[in-house]
Amino acid sequence: MADGLVKQVAKPLMKAAARGRFVQRYGPWAVVTGASSGIGEETARQLAALGLSVVLVARRRDRLEALAADLAAAHGVEVRASEHDLASPAGVEALITEVRPLDVGLLVNNAGFGMKGGFFDLSLAEQRRMIELNCQTPVALTHGLGARIVARGRGGIIFVSSTAAFQGLPTSAVYGASKGFDLLLGEAVWDELRKTGVDVLTLCPGPTDTEGPRRTGVDPDKVPVKMMQVGPVVRAALLGLGKRAVVVPGASNRVAALLTRLVPRAMATRVAGRLIRRVTGE
Ligand SMILES: NC(=O)c1ccc[n+]([C@@H]2O[C@H](COP(=O)([O-])OP(=O)(O)OC[C@H]3O[C@@H](n4cnc5c(N)ncnc54)[C@H](OP(=O)(O)O)[C@@H]3O)[C@@H](O)[C@H]2O)c1
What we know:
- This protein is an alpha/beta fold.
- It has a single domain (3-280), classed as Rossmann fold (3-Layer(aba) Sandwich).
- The protein is built from 11 helices and 7 strands.
- Strands 3-2-1-4-5-6-7 form a 7-stranded parallel beta sheet, with helices on both faces.
- Helix 6 (124-152) links the parallel strand 4 and strand 5.
- Helix 1 (3-15) packs across helix 9 (230-240), helix 5 (89-99) packs parallel to helix 6 (124-152) and helix 6 packs parallel to helix 7.
- Residues 34-40, 58-60, 85-87, 110-114, 133, 160, 162, 205, 207-208, 210-213 line the site of NADP nicotinamide-adenine-dinucleotide phosphate.
C-alpha cells in the first residue's frame, strides 16, 4: 500500500470503531522495547493514542519518564517507564518479572542496534552484544511474555527486523545476520500462532530517520532512497498487524526487496555492499 494511502486509511480507521477493537484485541497493556527513541518511541506514541497502556523499556530513564508523562497526559492511559539493559539475560528476566502482574496483550520487540565496520575490525565483544540484544532478547521475551499472550487467546507480537535481512550486508555483517534471524523467527512464529488468536508481524523498515543510523555514520544525503520518517513506518506496522506476516514500509523499499529476490544472491550482496559503503564512507 502506498504511504499516502496508509496515512489516509490509518487515521480514520484507527479513530473510530477500529480503535475499540484494537484495544480489545491487543490491550490493555503493551510492552515496547527500545521506547526511548526512534521507531520504538513512535510505536509507543501511536499505541497510546489508540488507547493502550504502555510499558516503555530502554536504558535512558530520563527519556522514558518524559515520554511516559507526555503520553499519560495526552491520552489518559497508564504509562510506565521501565529501565533495563536488555543486552543481558538478567535485564530480560527482570523485565519479565516486573510486568508479570500486568495483562500484556502486545509485545513489540524493537530494541536493537547496528555497527558499521569490517567483520574483523569490529570487536567480537560488541558483535556478541549485538546478537544478544537483536536476537537472544526477542527470543527470551517472546518465550516469557508470548506464552501468556497465547494463553489469553488474543493479542499480538511484533518483531522489528529490517530490509537488511534480505541479503548479506557487507560492513554490517553481524547486524544484517541478526535482522535475518529476526525475520525468520517472526515468520515461523507467525505460522505457529496462526490459529491461536495471536497476531504476529515482522516489520522490515528500510532506511529510517532515527538516531540509530546517524550513530553509525550514515549520511542521509547519500542514502539512495529517501529515508522514511518513523510515523508512516509504525502506521504501516499497526495496519498490517493481524493481516500480514511481514510488512516492508515504503514503495521504494518494497521494490528493492523484490529485486533482491529476482537477482542471484551474490549480486544482491555485492550491490548492498556498494550502497552501504557509499552512505557510510567506509
Ligand atoms: N532506523 C533504521 O534505518 C532502521 C531500519 C531497519 C530496522 N531498524 C530497527 O529498528 C529498531 C529501532 O531502531 P531505531 O532506528 O529506532 O534506533 P534508535 O533510535 O537508536 O532506537 C534504539 C532503541 O533501542 C534501545 N536500546 C539500545 N540498546 C539497548 C539495551 N542494551 N537495552 C535496552 N534498550 C536498548 C535504545 O534505548 P537506550 O539507548 O535508552 O537504551 C533505543 O530506545 C532496531 O531494532 C533497528 O535494528 C532501524
